[in-house]
Write a sequence for this structure.
């Protein structure tokens, strides 16, 4: 991958002092696990459920637009690797392959990720289409009101194709980035509208505050992804893991997932201890994809699974469902001086 492409795909918001993706990582480093010993850990259960789906480990593959820039097999490779690991994939509206082809190649659950477009009809039809072809949840990404415009022409063409196939091409302007079609006027009403038209559970991706978590609940979301878009939005010195506890406290029982900076098995345990039901990975699997396609993504998932099992054994944990707050040090984890030193 060329250096400019690498920076386009993996870059992060930065204020010249720190980068948000580094803050996401540092938040994990600032939380201490409290290992318990002399527990019989010969057998371990990593399986859990996310909404209606069973997964073999609490790690889902997050949506990545334009993944063909990393590898030509892109989402097809990702869903195959996810099936081998027994987990679910969130496929982006900006998928490099048609959503139909991705679902057809998948051996496991596929969730469809939607940006709220300027046309309510397009949002509705895309959601209905996702349901009709067998996706099992609708992930609505709300942390980008159309301001990220780094997209390649192939991705643009594909998204336009997806929309044109539904007879909706008139809802997008004739040219310009697809993200210009994301609606900066979207509000919670769009979530309600989708809910009334589509029976898939709705996951709201990009929540960082207690207030918005409460609104997710009020407006009928089934789950939340605490996310700062992998650091590609606002500069944030805190990191998503540190925002997780307030969201969990306000979400009143909705399932909460977390992404941003998950790179190793112990990170998964820390997120679960602070109230997440599962994590999503972005860069981690994209790196595997870039290096070796499906085999690369499989390897990433195997490494993560092995590390998670090892971390469980070191901590005296036998089932991911048993993980709770006692596994980490007090008060959302002490945030060491590391973020300040970024
Ligand atoms: C190249 C790239 C493309 C992305 N495309 C999308 C997208 O189309 N939709 C979306 O909701 N999130 C998108 N994201 C954000 C990821 O789904 C996820 O929130 C983020 O990568 C998690 O952080 P991590 O990379 O540190 O794991 C993208 C991230 C990257 C790095």
């Amino acid at each position: 991958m060329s250096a400019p492409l690498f920076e386009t795909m993996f870059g992060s918001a930065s204020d010249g002092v720190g980068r948000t993706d580094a803050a996401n990582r540092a938040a994990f480093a600032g939380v201490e696990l409290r290992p318990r010993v002399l527990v019989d850990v010969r057998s371990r259960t990593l399986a859990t459920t996310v909404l209606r789906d069973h997964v073999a480990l609490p790690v889902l593959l997050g949506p990545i637009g334009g993944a063909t820039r990393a590898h030509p097999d892109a989402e097809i490779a990702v869903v195959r690797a996810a099936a081998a690991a027994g987990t679910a994939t969130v496929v982006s509206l900006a998928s490099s392959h048609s959503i139909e082809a991705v679902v057809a190649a998948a051996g496991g659950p596929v969730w469809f990720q939607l940006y709220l477009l300027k046309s309510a009809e397009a949002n509705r039809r895309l959601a209905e289409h996702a349901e009709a072809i067998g996706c099992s949840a609708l992930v609505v990404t709300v942390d980008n009101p159309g301001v990220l415009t780094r997209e390649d022409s192939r991705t643009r063409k594909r998204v336009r194709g997806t929309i044109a196939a539904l007879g909706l091409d008139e809802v997008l302007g004739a040219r310009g980035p697809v993200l210009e079609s994301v609606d900066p006027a979207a509000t919670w009403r769009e979530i309600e509208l989708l809910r009334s038209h589509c029976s898939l559970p709705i996951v709201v991706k990009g929540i960082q505050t207690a207030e918005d978590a409460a609104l997710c609940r009020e407006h009928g979301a089934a789950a939340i992804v605490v996310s700062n878009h992998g650091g590609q939005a606002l500069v944030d010195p805190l990191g998503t893991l540190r925002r997780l506890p307030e969201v969990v406290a306000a979400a009143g029982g909705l399932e909460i997932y977390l992404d941003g900076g998950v790179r190793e098995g112990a990170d998964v345990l820390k997120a679960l201890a602070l109230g997440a039901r599962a994590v999503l990975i972005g860069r981690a699997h994209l790196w595997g994809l870039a290096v070796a396609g499906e085999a690369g993504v499989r390897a990433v998932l195997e490494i993560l699974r092995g590390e998670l099992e090892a971390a469980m054994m070191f901590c005296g944990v036998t089932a991911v469902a048993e993980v709770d707050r006692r596994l980490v040090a007090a008060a959302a984890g002490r945030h060491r001086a590391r973020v300040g030193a970024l």
